[in-house]
Amino acid sequence: MFLPLSFRSSTACRRNGARCGQASLFVLALLLAQPALAQEAPPPSEENVGDIDDTIPPPPPDANLPVTEDPIISDEEFADEVPELADDDPALDMPLESIEEFERRLAAEQADAEPTEGQEAPLGDPALADGDVVEEIGDAPITDPELAAPLPPLETFEVEPVEFAEEASDTEVVEIDYAVRVDGLEEADGQTEIAVIDQFEALSALYDGDGEADNLAQVSARLTEDSLLIQRILAAEGWYGATAETRIDRSETANGQPITAVITVVPGPRYTFADVIIDADPTEPADLIADNLAIQPGEPIVATRVQGAEAQVAIALPEQGYPFAEVGQRDILLDQETGDGVYTLPVTTGPRSSFGGIRTTGNLAFGADHIETLARFERGELYDSREVDDLRQALVATGLFNTVSVVPEQSGELAPDGTQYATILVDQDAGPPRTIAGSAGFSTGEGVRIAGSWTHRNLFPPEGALIANGVLGTREQGAGVTFRRSNWGQRDRSLQFTLEALHSDYEAFEAYTGRLSGLVTYVSTPIWQKTLTYAYGAQLLATNEQDFDVELGERVNDTFFIGGLTGQVGFDLSDDLLNPTEGFRVTALIEPEAALETDFIPYVRGIVDASGYFPAGDALILAARARVGTIQGIERFELAPSRRLYAGGGGSVRGYGYQQLGPKVLEPNPRFDPEDPEDESDPFLIRPIGGRSVIEGALEARYRFGNFGIVGFVDAGQVYEDEFPTFEDIRYGVGVGGRYYTNFGPLRFDVATPIGRRDGESLINVYVSIGQAF
Asked: What whole-number percentage of the chain has pLDDT above 90?
């Protein structure tokens, strides 16, 4: 965008020398002389009234005559011309009569006046010659007979209705075709970082018209508009004296069309900086402003560079300990003879400051103590506006405010290092703390899943939330309640306790589970993506689950009591949480647990996930993922089915149903009726039973165009009964997906099919969710 800078000229009067001052003195002398000149002019008469302006003498022929300080008329001459008043005149002591008295006296004098002999009666009527000032209109005779004649009736007038001309329906609008030619812009185009010709063509009214216009006047108007546009573009790049002439050329036309709209540009000299002056108090370091003002003498005066350099100064000073700095209005003095410009920038730095205390006002959600927990700066540290912006974002992320502002204010208190403490003022306007949220998804194998929650985010201040949640789906139903303390003793750390009941009905198992858990988390959020994350906690589970008994050859119900610890650590160097385009992530989960229903049987679950993202152009991203998991210290059938390892599904190996990879068993179908000859259902069911080790991998090619994208992928994986993966019988799935990118992450729709499909496996599997698959 072009933004021409204002400037002032230094050569307006310099080339005229002393002539400017002499002309001004002459005008002043002429104004002083006018009262006397007017007095000496003869009074107007019938002979000279038309020439009254000629009585004012013309100005002196030589404007360089010296100006004297002697008066035009002396005091003695003025006194002689003033008439003398008699001291004993009694009229001088009489009070002035009012306007009403004056009007009554004047009327009486006119009434007593007799008409002069020989004077004609007004309008030839003797009745009006009696001198009366008031006459009754009714007493005056009517001498014109037409005034006494009656008016003719309306019917005698002939009135014809007005007929409007009809618009011709077959009128053909003849459009004008035109071409555009710009001459003289090539020289300027080669001297700028941004192509002037391209910038003009992008904004031009002529080019926007695609060579067509309704009439010649429209082409002319576009020419005028574009000539001004070129001058503005060139001025923004330093050509302040550019001219642009326009014409319509018909020399190369046949039958009058197409015409050529021609703009002839003369850029003139390009102005450059002769000097850069910073008008500011000393700073620490001394060159703080100069280092951030990225313009140097000899550079062209480009508007965007000047504005960008000033913006950088306005940003850098608060980041380096000057929170109250203000950048003033620039002054660029151009010299039209040399083509140079002297740039002056006034800057008010204000006191160099350090962080002081925190003060909060308004409708409070929590107090200053909790704000100090959110702040990443300490009292006495050099002021940095980036830390203040970070605190503002942390307050917004709590979700507890309608509005919140964080600004510094001067305290007047000096710190030990000589800086001044800056108090951080937080003005709060607490918003509604309750939230209702919901989500929905679908995938083959899991079916439909709808989840909702009700949250009071500040029921136990500060940031103590109570959450009630529920899930209703094809495979899951349940409810729970959670207490969560956000920013618990430390920024971004949370403490939560959860009590929930859940019913799960999958092909691998059916379970009724109650869970009580406590967890401390430090994880990434959509606002802050952290490099290092962690979580640790403990949980107790009581679950009644249906499992397949190999010895009996049928499903049986069993109850499990499990106690365990949880520990997770993550390392994230990707560039985005929901839509990464480069970098990598690694997460490790370890869960020491014990089966408590009969004997104490300890075991350990461990899973490692890793993913990487590699840009292959502006729109193509290659992504890869790997996962390895193991369970050590327990036999598979001593482990609750819900705690075993599974693979398959939208977040695992696409192309297969949820939990469909790995060891399976063939069991009788309880819905099959062998006595019904019309029952076409399979007499046996193939069901997964899970395992103690898993391996997964995936490759994706993600291509984005605008807000949409397409993805091609290959997934692989398998679950094994052994404690470690054997890498045998790895299964593959392939598919394509669509993406719609929103401001909170991409919406995902994937369709996949298994390679080497086996009995019981679906040909097509569909997955719908938010965010990339990994």
From this structure: 53
Helices 216-236 and 196-203 cross at an angle (nearest 10°) of 140
Pairwise CA distance, residues 263 & 281, whole Å: 49
Instruction: Give the pLDDT confidence of 95-111 residue by residue, as tens digits.
Output: 777 787 877 787 777 66
Is the Cβ–Cβ distance between 483 and 390 less than 8 Å? no
SS3 367: coil
168 pLDDT higher than 80: no
- pLDDT at site 512: 94
Q: How far is CA 115 from CA 79, 112, 120, 694, in A?
A: 44, 10, 9, 135
- Which residue carries 């992450």 as its tokens? 745
How many Å apart are CA 751 and CA 654, to the nearest integer?
A: 8
- Coil, helix or strand for 225? helix
pLDDT at 584: 95
3-class secondary structure, 100: helix
For the chain, the distance separating the N- and C-terminal CA atoms, rounded to the nearest angstrom, is 39
Q: Read out DSSP for 283-297?
A: -SSTTHHHHH----T
* Average pLDDT score, the chain: 82
pLDDT digits (tens, 9 = 90+) for 334-376: 998 899 999 999 999 999 999 999 999 999 999 999 999 999 9
In this prediction, residue 32 carries a pLDDT of 32
CA distance 350 to 385: 15
Exposed, middle or buried: residue 400 (CB in 10 Å: 0-12, 13-18, 19+)?
A: buried
Task: Write out the two tokens for 414.
Answer: 């000096």
Give the pLDDT score at 514: 95
Structure-token pair, residue 735: 């598919």
The enclosing H or E element of 23 equals helix 19-40
Q: Is the CB of residue 538 less than 8 Å from the CB of residue 566? A: yes
H/E element holding 315?
helix 303-319
Task: Please list, in sequence order, all residues whose beta carbon lies within 8 angstroms of the beta carbon of residue 202, skipping any fewer than 6 positions away.
Answer: none
Write the pLDDT tens digit of every residue in 477-509: 999 999 999 999 999 999 999 999 999 988 888
Does a cis peptide bond (omega within 30 degrees of 0) precede residue 461? no
* Alpha-carbon torsion angle 422, 424, 425, 427, nearest 10: 160
From the list 206, 332, 324, 321, the residue with the least C-alpha distance to 276 is 332
Token pair belonging to 69: 């300080």
Which tokens is 352 given? 């160099």
Q: Which residues contact 410 (CB under 8 A, 6 or more apart)?
A: 324, 350, 351, 353, 420, 422, 423
